[in-house]
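Translate structure to sequence.
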């Protein structure tokens, strides 16, 4: 299969994602007391954008793991000035840590790409200390996405995400996945987040333009000719500019607490 996203593409996308979600994530980090946790695990740290953000607001030590060594090289370079960061290669379904190692385990848009999600959650529980917390700060539910006017590229986007390994219904599974491994669980949708639900059309347009390169790559991979891609992008920008585009992306967070025993 043709490579959909290069490491450089992922670096660019994950940096944008980190910047756009910062305010939303920080509210969750306050709720799980990230600042005062001693040992923190960031699963799927990728190129290190969110890892660095967390490391700069916590007093504890943070370990980042990812299965992609090319992304980890970028992460190491990006965080090498931070004394409280350690980066390792690791699979969420087979974490390279002893039992009861971390006070907080967190991940952001990661479980959506994991094939054996139940096994991954069991591993999260195994490496978390009694009384510790597991936080999925955001997991999308691509099939639940609501738009009007209907997006003519919607089905292409869903198939493209599947080709990247995404579970299109991951978000709606969070409650079941967390509770089924014995976690006292809270699940919610951050419907007030500027990252997910932007009210201001001017900002919405800016974000669409920032992500324009992703749409171009996706539609090019789908075989659309350049003139059709350009026409689609112009149409979407016009709808947003005129205040006619409604978009409600469905994504969820989950916080799970381990028993003290």
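Result:
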């Amino acid at each position: 299969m043709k490579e959909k996203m290069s490491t450089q593409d992922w670096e660019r996308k994950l940096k944008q994602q980190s910047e756009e979600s910062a305010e939303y994530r920080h509210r969750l980090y306050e709720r799980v007391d990230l600042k005062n946790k001693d040992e923190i695990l960031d699963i799927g740290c990728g190129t290190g954008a969110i890892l660095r953000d967390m490391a700069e607001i916590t007093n504890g030590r943070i370990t980042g793991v990812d299965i992609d060594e090319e992304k980890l090289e970028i992460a190491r370079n990006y965080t090498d000035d931070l004394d409280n960061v350690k980066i390792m290669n690791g699979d969420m379904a087979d974490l390279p840590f002893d039992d009861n190692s971390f006070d907080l385990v967190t991940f952001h848009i990661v479980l959506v790409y994991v094939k054996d999600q139940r096994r991954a959650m069991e591993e999260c529980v195994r490496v978390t200390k009694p009384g510790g917390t597991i936080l999925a700060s955001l997991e999308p539910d691509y099939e639940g996405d609501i738009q009007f006017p209907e997006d003519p590229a919607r089905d292409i986007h869903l198939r493209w995400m599947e080709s990247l390994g995404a579970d299109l219904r991951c978000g709606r599974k969070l409650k079941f996945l967390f509770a089924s491994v014995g976690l006292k669980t809270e699940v919610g949708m951050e419907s007030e987040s500027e990252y997910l639900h932007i009210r201001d059309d001017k900002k919405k347009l800016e974000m669409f333009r920032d992500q324009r390169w992703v749409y171009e790559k996706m539609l090019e991979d789908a075989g659309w000719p350049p003139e059709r891609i350009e026409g689609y992008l112009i149409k979407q920008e016009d709808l947003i500019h005129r205040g006619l585009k409604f978009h409600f992306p469905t994504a969820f967070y989950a916080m799970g607490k381990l028993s003290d025993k």
